[in-house]
Specification:
about 775 residues, alpha/beta, 6-stranded parallel β-sheet, 31 helices, 24 strands, globular
């Protein structure tokens, strides 16, 4: 018989006639709890077919359905609750509304290519309408446009309002007009995509009169109880549709964790769970599933420390703010990388793990940005370590890497021998990156000529220059000259790449063709990682291309074989909902994770990035490795739970590492069995003590406050710390007026402060 915690029993046995919000931390056993709740509802007389369970993806729906079926074998009734995704619910509703003539009959299209074709048609229509569009190359706008369509379909606002809220760049200003044309064509052709299964019925419902309202309400099942999993990921359209259909006569149990909402970029609205349902479902009863059975206290302590910085996000009361993530699973090990270089550090961790366990299929490398995966993949390929890449195209299909390989092909003599290029199609990159301003109607023909006769490319460029003038002519001649000179770098391809990027202004081109700074930075980081690899192998251009071709061949063989015992590589977004024995997190540099643009990061963005870090560390069951190596100063600060000194330098380790306090947590847990150990010095003892209290544990080693905030006057020579400027020494403090304090800082020099407006921490025991 399943043993439930008191928190789980409170959810399971809650009154059947209430609306409830369940805050469930990662690994809290919410599926087990929801299934038990369903059985309880049935035992209390609720008909099974009056219970609806909503899930956010097909795999979760199938797994839940199977477990529910097994748990209901003792039930005498043949009726079963309906477990569905939002899309499957929308599909049934749309079909019924079609049958009653409420919305137009349309064919459901499930492949992405059909949407791409429709997008191209809409774009052509805009061109015919002479809409001002800065970008015509499909590769520069199509992916963003498809994301924008998803954002609009997830919203209840207009396309223009969504565009402004998402802060798209000005060169994407045509997106709302593109969306309008897309919808005109879609409706004319009478087709629907998955996102339309919610938005089409909702559009009718929002404008329906009382007579039509009676009609559509008669088409939906009469559910009396709704259980909605992963509620933090709900978007405005989904929520609005369910409210129209079920708010007035059904009881809702909304299960999720706002701190695990990481899909805001595609329309998820964490504020719905954090705040809106408290207003829409008064009174609403809150329950907590705060104990995780996935990981041990190391991860629990780290997660609790981290989330304390996001405590205002969930609109919580002061009492609720102190809630911790309690790790009651198997004890989870923790370590930092042993080496500075990413590839070497990763291979060392895998070797250590292999000596202990030997199973790669239970291991994952997680990154914030896919560009961080480039050195990892190259290192794994080099050592023939099997891996599976999730959510991204194979390394040698990456556009930036293929572009660089095209220029390496020129260094190797590819203009005279096209077989030296990695792939003949790559020759087109020589004509298109950076753009030479070739008109779209001529681009395909010119690229075909270049691929067929690469030795004629410089002459082609010069002929094109003769037919124009000004800036474009100059760029064409410069490209021709540079391509002729690239063989000079055949022995030093890394320098050849660096100079090509500079000479041709490729990074500027990336900046001009990227809608958001994160896309530009991803492209640049990919190039930099590849250059580092090229510099490291120390091969000439021809040998390098042979090496890359061999690695690509091995990569393709790996893709085809789908080795079951292989390492998983994925983004943190892809890892949501998964768990692994070993989790290795890479790319943990301030400015990259948390990622922020132009040194700007507002509170909302920072909270979203922090949630992503929380999702990452809570995927680990047996061991968590942060693939970065703190220097001595950073390690010392981590041991006493101090904040990061400088949060503007990409070279610094992520602030989230400081916030989660891994070394301090490790030290405290390791000393739990040593009753004779000395006091542990900690800057902030409150969080640690709160965790131990809520976990029902005794803290065997006293915590000693290592620093205290300054109050009163400081004396010359006393050491202080400032959150922004780091550690310094007091020079003097004025005796009259504002009593200004003068401090000499180690890193930034002399500063003057008003003590009423400045927070200085006096260092003790120095």
């Amino acid at each position: 018989m399943t043993q439930y915690t008191q928190e789980q029993l409170a959810v399971i046995q809650a009154n059947t006639n209430i609306n409830a919000k369940i805050i469930a931390v990662a690994g809290a056993g919410k599926t087990t709890t929801l299934i038990a709740r369903i059985n309880h509802l049935i035992e209390q007389g609720v008909q099974p077919d009056r219970i609806a369970v909503f899930m956010f993806n097909k795999s979760a729906q199938e797994e839940f359905s199977q477990r529910l079926l097994q748990a209901m074998t003792h039930q005498s009734t043949a009726l079963k609750p309906e477990v569905m995704t939002f899309h499957s619910f929308g599909m049934k509703l749309a079909r019924r509304m079609e049958q009653r003539g409420l919305i137009e009959r349309s064919e459901l299209i499930t492949d992405d290519f059909s949407l791409v074709k429709l997008m191209r048609e809409a774009m052509q229509q805009l061109v015919r309408m002479q809409v001002n569009i800065e970008l015509h190359d499909e590769k520069d706008w199509l992916e963003d446009a498809m994301l924008f369509v998803d954002q609009v379909k997830a919203s209840t606002q207009s396309a223009k309002a969504v565009f402004l809220e998402a802060k798209w760049s000005k060169d994407r200003a045509f997106f709302p007009a593109l969306y309008k044309q897309l919808e005109i064509i879609r409706k004319r052709k009478k087709i629907r995509f998955f996102s339309d299964l919610i938005s089409d019925p909702l559009s009718f419902i929002e404008d329906a009169n009382e007579e039509q309202k009676a009609l559509y309400l008669g088409l939906v099942p009469k559910y009396t109880h709704l259980l909605i999993d992963e509620f933090q990921d709900i978007n405005d359209s989904q929520y609005s549709l369910l409210k129209h259909l079920y708010q007035s006569h059904s009881y809702w149990m909304m299960v999720g964790d706002v701190q695990q909402c990481i899909y805001e970029w595609r329309g998820a609205k964490p504020d719905i769970m954090a705040k809106q349902i408290d207003h829409d479902f008064k009174p609403i009863h809150r329950f907590d599933l705060s104990t995780s059975f996935r990981f041990g206290h190391q991860i629990g302590l780290m997660a609790s420390n981290l989330l304390a910085h996001n405590k205002q996000l969930d609109n919580e009361t002061p009492e609720e703010e102190s809630a911790c993530v309690i790790g009651k699973g198997e004890q989870t090990e923790f370590s930092f990388a042993q080496y500075d270089k990413t590839g070497k550090a990763l291979l060392n961790e895998l070797k250590t793990w292999g000596n202990q366990v030997g199973n790669l299929s239970n291991c994952a490398v997680l990154v914030r940005l896919y560009s961080d995966m480039v050195p990892i993949q190259l290192a794994l390929m080099h050592r023939k370590v099997p891996y599976q890449l999730h959510g991204d195209s194979p390394l040698f299909e990456n556009r930036q890497i293929r572009m660089l390989m095209a220029y390496i092909g020129v260094m190797a003599g590819g203009l005279d021998d096209a077989s030296l290029f990695y792939h003949k199609e790559d020759i087109s990159y020589l004509m298109t990156v950076p753009s030479l301003g070739i008109p779209p109607n001529q681009r395909k023909t010119i690229n075909q000529r270049a691929i067929a006769s690469p030795h004629l490319i410089p002459q082609m460029l010069e002929s094109m220059a003769d037919e124009t003038n000004g800036w474009r002519a100059k760029k064409l001649l410069e490209r021709a000259d540079w391509l002729r000179s690239l063989t000079l770098y055949s022995k030093q391809p890394d320098k050849g790449i660096i100079n090509t990027l500079d000479k041709l202004g490729i990074y500027r081109y990336f900046e001009n063709t990227s809608s958001k700074e994160i896309q530009y930075n991803e492209k640049v980081a990919t190039c930099e990682s590849f250059i580092a690899y090229v510099a490291g192998v120390k091969l000439d251009a021809k040998a390098l291309l042979d090496e890359l071709k061999q690695l690509a061949s091995l990569d393709q063989s790996r893709e085809n074989s789908k080795n079951q015992d292989s390492l998983h590589l994925m983004s943190l977004h892809k890892a949501k909902g998964l768990e692994f024995d070993l989790v290795i997190m890479a790319g943990l540099k301030e400015g990259l994770f948390p990622y922020y643009e132009a040194n700007k990061l507002d509170a909302t963005q920072l909270a979203a990035e922090r949630r992503l870090f929380y999702v990452g560390i809570t995927r680990a069951k047996k061991k968590l490795v942060l693939l970065t190596k703190p220097d001595k100063a950073e390690a010392k600060r981590l041991e006493v739970a101090e904040k990061a000194i400088n949060t503007k330098k990409v070279s610094d380790i992520s602030r989230f590492i400081y916030e989660s306090q891994p070394l301090l947590c490790q030290k405290i847990l390791q000393r739990q069995d040593d009753h004779q150990a000395s006091n542990i010095e900690v800057k902030d003892t409150a969080k640690i003590k709160a965790y131990f209290a809520q976990a029902g544990m005794t803290l065997n080693n006293p915590l000693q406050q290592s620093q205290h905030e300054f109050s009163g006057k400081l004396k010359p020579g006393e050491k202080v710390r400032h959150d922004q400027f780091g550690q310094g020494v007091v020079i003097r403090q004025e005796k009259g007026g504002n009593e200004m304090i003068y401090v000499e800082f180690e890193e930034v020099g002399f500063k003057r402060f008003n003590p009423r407006h400045t927070k200085l921490v006096k260092l003790v025991n120095q």
